[in-house]
Amino acid sequence: MKFMKLGSKPDTFESDDKFHKYAVSDLDSDVTVIVGEFTFYLHKFPLLSKSNRMQRLVSEASEENTNDITISDIPGGHKAFEICAKFCYGITVTLNAYNITAVRCAAEYLEMTEDVDRGNLIYKIEVFLNSGIFRSWKDSIIMLQTTKSLLPWSEDLKLVARCIDSVSAKILVNPETITWSYTHNRKLSGPDKIVERDENAIPKDWWVEDVCELEIDLFKKVLRAVKSSGRMNNGVISEALRYYAARWLPESIESEAASSNKHLVETVVSLLPRVNRAMSYSTCSFLLKLLKVSFLVGVDETVKEDLVDNVSLKLHEASVKDLLIHEVELVHRIVDRFVGDEKRVSEDDRYKEFVLGNGVLLSVGRLIDAYLASNRDLTLSSFVELSELIPEAARPIHDGLYKAIDTFLKEHPELTKSEKKRLCGLMDVRKLTSESSAHAAQNERLPLRVVVQVLYFEQLRANHSPVGSVAASSHSPIPPVKKAEESIVVVEEEAAKKVGLSKKSRGSKSTRSGGGGGGPQLMPSRSRRIFEKIWPGKGESNKSSEVSSGSSQSPQAKSSSSSSRRRRHSIS
What we know:
The protein is mainly alpha-helical and 572 residues long. It contains 27 helices and seven strands.
């Protein structure tokens, strides 16, 4: 830390208690200066030789036949006045980054200028500021911190502006040329590691920790000065904002602290670099956490909207964990904003957005499907409405949506037949992979109609594509849905009859109703009957297996069974 010593005489200021100080001398004190709760017993000559204001105050006191002078509004209070008084006596005083702002403001108040005495206190302080304080990184930061309590004096004397100029100029220096010390103890990893670092090089964000010790309004002024230069990487600015929020925002927001935190959040949001999908500045995780806090502290709606805009543009980078900290209504709002942005792509940017946006859409589709599968607090309406927001292009495969629907059915066994139909209507079974189709075909939570569709389209897919993949089937003709629907009605009627008979014969033993699910007794025969209705002749081999174990097959039956197996193998 830089410092400057003024004067050469030993300290002769003594006190007999906490609030009274004397300038020890062969001469008696002839002026009493009261500064707040403190009383100084001093001598007129040293004070008048350095201070224009003291000359006027002593003159006014003499006219009133008193030696008492009261100073109630001196910046820096009794401590700053004492340093100025000691300077007048020639007593050694030490100036540094911690006290120089207060002494400079007090000297201005006392009018300790060159027209009173050459080499006066204001002149000497200015020399020290330019040659010492403003050349030091940490001293500039410390001095800037002290200006807050000395407003408006520090502002009027341009001390705040000069500190900001000093700090911002050093921030913009090429890191390779930095020779001063700074604080850098952060260990970043994962999504927070947005600034590339070389272990042997000075990092681009070397200044962040020191600047983040500033009060929010001063921090804002420094960041604005840095941003206005246009020479600082937006990723580093975002890192500074993220670190500042983590440094000063509490884990939990108390009501009495909401006001100060509101100002902090609003300021941080106002400083965020404008994001776009092509450039990663603030991480989506940070933006979502900031959005959560913004609701807790009650920031203005315009600030919330600004954050929602930022989050929607970076939604493809979010995680399910990030979304789960918010109410589903807000997630719906963010997704809706994202979809709206996708639709407003300009003609000039169409190719660029297509190349970049395709991966963005897929990422958001997977994210929302995973969110739907993970949020146990969703209602049927909120589930359906959020799912329907996702564009078709974002879901070329419906495995994620199927998993979400299956999870919802598992969590809500009380759903009615119509509710299950509404839920499962979100899914296109033709977009399920073979693995998901196989699972769905045996899923007793799914309505019978959906299982029929899965089996029907999977068989048609096998006919058109030996590979049986979703990608391959996308080039095949659209399977005829009408035939499957007709078969569904027949199978549902038969299933309902079987359930009724089963209830009569077995009493209270539970069986599966025709529309809402199934039991282990119904599932094996259900799939077989479906195939018989849709593809007559395909079930012959299954029928032959129902013959009792004691009977033997005829040669014709064996031949028919073998032929049926060969035919089924050839299309599967």
